[in-house]
């Protein structure tokens, strides 16, 4: 399991573990803590009131994420952890849900907030009567419970904006995929998302709601990027790691020097070199590690001292789509190994080439089909 430690540290960097709920670990991103302190001390109300309100907001976001986690578990998808950012939470799932599963998973978050808001409202009316509750709803600043009700409604509505990365955008994509093939649903959802972002941005700028304009920019780029990710995923559907790996490459012996490695870096188009001792793979020397060692200790040091021993291992039969996040986290290169045997390498460059070829292939097939239909 060594190969996972790097990745886990990356996921956990800048976050604080605060506990776990039903087996799901909950982490606070450090910016959340800063926001908390700033809000508590900069606002007009007493720090205690502000603190309580922040706690209520925190609980609302957590309930929202718990809604996603609950719906995921219905599809047998485990939630690995929930990370709380100042703008909301992110639930990391054990695998990517299908578009249709995503429809329900993404609606469950806002639904949880509406459920909370509804129950609190009913409870309030039941205890204090309709008249007093109505007065409070008009002056929400006065009352923590009423403020929390409004915050939950706002949280639900904001997340229901039909634009990725909001839940509404994912739900829209899932909904469209009932009628359209997945890549087309993603493309349509992305176009709608960008359209809404542009409209929001205009309203925000014209009306002087700069926070809204800020959200719009975030949504615009999110929608564009998600479309690219989804197209990539649909091209890689069902492809195994071994189909995309590089099989012709050079390895370095663990007795080689950094100077030898630098020569190979120039002589070949390779950026990352597996380091072997006999037929055992002992490490991976990336271009960055090589250059770093060259600058720090010169060309005569051994590669064994500079290489990464904790490199990413990929199984040849693993799904390429599922391997993508770990390749990205590992800094762009993984070694494809069956037990101890090195079969190939997977780098971001050769993945890009593989994707381009698949895309040309897919478009070629589409044209063939259209010809047949005519
Ligand atoms: Zn959500």
Radius of gyration (CA) equals: 26 Å
Indicate the overall shape. elongated
Going by helix content, strand content and strand pairing, the class is alpha/beta
> In total, how many beta strands?
10
Low-confidence stretches: 1-12
Number of helices: 14
In what range is the share of β-strand residues? 5-15%
Describe the structure.
With about 375 residues, the protein is of the alpha/beta class. The protein folds into three domains: about 15-160, no CATH class; about 160-235, no CATH class; about 240-355, Roll (CBS-domain), CATH 3.10.580.10. The protein contains 14 helices and ten strands. It has helices at about 5-10, 30-40, 45-75, 100-140, 145-160, 165-175, 180-205, 210-235, 240-245, 260-265, 285-295, 305, 320-330, 350-374, and strands at about 15-20, 25-30, 80-85, 90-95, 250-255, 275, 280-285, 315, 335-340, 340-345. β9 (about 335-340) and β10 form a beta hairpin. α2 (about 30-40) packs antiparallel against α3 (about 45-75). The longest helix has about 40 residues, at about 100-140. The chain is elongated. Bound molecules: zinc ion. Zinc ion binds near residues 64 and 167.
């Amino acid at each position: 399991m060594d190969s996972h430690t790097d990745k886990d540290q990356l996921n956990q960097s800048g976050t604080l573990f605060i506990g776990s709920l039903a087996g799901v670990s909950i982490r606070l991103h450090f910016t959340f803590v800063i926001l908390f302190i700033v809000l508590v001390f900069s606002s007009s109300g007493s720090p205690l009131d502000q603190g309580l309100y922040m706690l209520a907001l925190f609980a609302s976001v957590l309930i929202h994420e718990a809604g996603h986690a609950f719906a995921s578990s219905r599809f047998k998808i485990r939630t690995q952890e929930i990370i709380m950012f100042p703008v909301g939470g992110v639930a990391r799932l054990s695998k990517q849900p299908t578009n249709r599963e995503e429809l329900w998973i993404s609606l469950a978050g806002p639904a949880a907030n509406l459920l909370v808001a509804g129950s609190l409202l009913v409870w309030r009316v039941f205890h204090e009567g309709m008249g007093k509750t109505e007065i409070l709803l008009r002056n929400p600043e006065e009352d923590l419970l009423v403020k929390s009700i409004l915050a939950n409604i706002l949280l639900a509505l904001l997340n229901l904006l039909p634009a990725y990365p909001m839940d509404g955008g994912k739900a829209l994509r899932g909904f469209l995929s009932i009628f359209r093939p997945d890549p087309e649903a993603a493309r349509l959802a992305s176009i709608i998302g960008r359209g809404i972002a542009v409209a929001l941005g205009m309203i925000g700028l014209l009306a002087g709601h700069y926070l809204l304009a800020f959200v719009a920019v975030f949504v615009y780029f999110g929608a564009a990027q998600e479309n690219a990710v989804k197209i990539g995923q649909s091209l890689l559907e069902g492809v195994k790691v071994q189909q995309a790996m590089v099989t012709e490459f050079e390895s370095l012996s663990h007795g080689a020097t950094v100077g030898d490695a630098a020569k190979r870096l120039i002589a070949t188009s390779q950026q990352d070199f597996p380091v072997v001792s006999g037929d055992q793979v002992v490490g991976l020397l990336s271009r960055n590690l090589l250059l770093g060692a060259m600058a720090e200790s010169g060309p005569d040091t051994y590669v064994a001292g500079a290489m990464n021993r904790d490199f990413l291992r990929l199984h040849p039969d693993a799904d390429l789509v599922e391997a993508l996040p770990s390749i990205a986290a590992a800094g762009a290169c993984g070694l494809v190994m069956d037990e101890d045997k090195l079969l190939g390498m997977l780098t971001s460059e050769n993945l890009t080439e593989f994707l381009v070829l698949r895309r040309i292939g897919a478009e070629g097939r589409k044209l063939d089909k259209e010809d047949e239909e005519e």
